[in-house]
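Encoded backbone
================
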Amino acid sequence: MISKFYKGIQFAALGLMGSLIMSSCAEKSSTTGWDYNDSKNGGFQVNTGYEGQQTGPGLVFVEGGTFTMGRAEDDIMRDWNNIPRRVTVSSFYMDETEVTNLAYREYIYWLDRVYGFDYPEVVQNALPDTLVWRSRLGYNDPYVETYFRHPAYQFYPVVGVSWKQANDYCAWRTDRVNEQILIEEGVLRTNPNQYADDNFDTDAYLFGFYTGEVKKNLPDLNPNGLGEAGRPVNLSDGILLPRYRLPTEAEWEYAALALIGNTEFERVTEKRQYPWNSSSLRNPDERNKGFMLANYKRGRGDMMGIAGSLNDSYDITAPVKSFPPNDFGLYDMAGNVAEWVLDVYRPLTGEDVDDFRAFRGNVFSTWATDEDGYVEYPDSLGNMIRREVTAEEALGRRNYDRAENRDYVDGDLKSSIYYDKGELPEGDDPMYEYAKKTMVNNEVRVYKGGSWKDRAYWLVPGNRRYLEEDMSTDFIGFRCAMHRVGSQTNN
């Protein structure tokens, strides 16, 4: 466990173990023969007892693998925007459920407590748009006032959140989880009085710009280091978790299908159309036979069934965990709310993305630096500042030549009819003229899965839709994911 590493270095630094025990337990470098974690020879500190990544709060481990990504049924929309292709997804973590109103209200409360007085616009920009419930020919105004705030809906998925807002939530959650880890490890004290730029940011902490209320730092074995004051945690200690983020489209689709339940010795014994076996939308188990397996619109004017025998039982969204999980233990991967994913939308995604960790949406960035080359101090909100890499920084590289790669080979000069000219005619667009020829551009994001408002067609994980990243609806929510470091199994 994490605490074993912390305690082990404590004992080594304080000299509480006898020399015989130290010599028998010391681990040497296989390349130099020098001891690790020994202040007498320079104090190079190594977590030799690392036992694997811990599962962050709310997450479920999803073991990666290969699968056929894309549409698994008739293309009734006739847009051919998700042709089947085989890809590999690395292991990762995903939220067990969609982010709930309660979880999002915790986020809003924290923002208001820390930024509300000096930066009220931060809170305002994070609020979900409750007006998405309004309809010209429907009486939905009660949801405008109650859905997000009322305790009756606290375990329902949050809606009215844009792709940008969902990303901001993921960044905030990363910092709160890592701060709590440091508190539990005895490194920091709880500090409920964080204010404005004086708040825990994971990156600012790792760069040394945020100290916090230190309880007991890790021992510093470097003879020229911080001595008895100890040192902050760094990335090589393996204590802090990677970032929470939105899942990629490939990850989301792979997790939704959960073919792990239909696999035997590297063979998929039964292909799936939905996140469960069979093409039926009703539960085949004897105990719950006939009940719906997801919250969706059964037909025109039929949102929940007939009085006295309500089928999915919910007129709009449902509390998370109201329906059975799939074989990865993930709830509502079909129905309830559709979900944002990380990718920029392109119609021909299957033909141009990598077959390993497929993703479209990269804009490569680095830390902002001052005129002397030092990393910039955090901004007025306490967040580290990033900037896009320049053409000069990418010069001579073989794997990328620019920061902007959202439109790579599908929307840039190289993919246009003007490629041989070397530049675009003035005022022309290579391919996607937003709102003129198409509704697709680099700010349009994919969302997956059906919702309470959708017919069964959209419950199929391979189907995909898109929306502008700064817009929101009453049927799109989100869940977070996290990268798995190291081993691809969770033994």
